[in-house]
Write a structure and sequence with these properties.
about 240 residues; mainly alpha; Arc Repressor Mutant, subunit A; Tetracycline Repressor, domain 2; 10 helices; elongated
Amino acid sequence: MRSRARPRNRAPPHRCLAHGRRTPPLTRQEQPMGTSSTKDRLVEAALRVVAREGISGTSARVIAAEAGVNQALVFYHHSSVEALLAEASRQVSARRAARYAQRLATVTSFTELSTIARQLHDEEHHSGDLAVLTQLLAGARTRPAITAALRDNFELLVEPVEQTLARLVMGTALEEVLAVPELARSIAGGFLGLELLDGVVTDIDAGPFDAIDAIAGVVDLALQAGVIETAVLRRRLRSARS
C-alpha cells in the first residue's frame, strides 16, 4: 500500500491594501526584491509630495501611492514618515552641496564668488528643491528628526563656502584678520535666507545681489592694488572693538 506524500508547506497569501482593509507590517520573508531601489523610490516620492502637497498634506498613504508601493514599505524602510522626510532632506542637501562645491571650485576672486552665488540662486529658484526646503523648515519645529537633519544639512552647505573663502584670502592681508568659518556660516545663512524670501515674497528683485556684486568688486580692487594692509586692518579692528 502506497504511503501518501506529505503536503508541502505553502506560504500564506500576501494580503494587499484593498477595500479599506489594514495591511499588516511586512516580515523579513516578505521583503521585496530590489529593496534599495524601493527605498530610493520612497525618498523621491516623499520629495514630490512635500513640494506638491506641503508638509501638512504629507502622509505614509500619500507617499506610498506616489511611489506605487505598499504603504507598509514606508515603515519597513524608514520606521516613520518623519524619518523618511529627514532622509529626503539629507539627499536634497547632499545634491545642493555637491553642486555648490563643483561650481565654487574654480572661483579665484570675490567677484566670481558673487556671480556664482547669483547663478545658483537663479537655478534653485526654478528647481523643486526650494519648495521642499521651505516646507521642511516650516514643519521642523514639531519634528525633532527633521530639525536635526536640517542642522546637519546646513553644515554641508557651509563647507564648500568656507573652503572657497579660505582659498581667496590665502596670502592676503585678510587671511590674518577674517574669521573664515564664521564668515562662511554668515554667507551661507544669508544665501539661504534670500532663497526662502524669494519663495514667499514675489517682488524681490536683483537688488541684494547687485549690492553684493559691488562689495565684492571693491574688495577685489583693494586686494589687487595692495590698499589693504594687515597692520592697518589690525589697528582699525582694535579701535572698533574698544
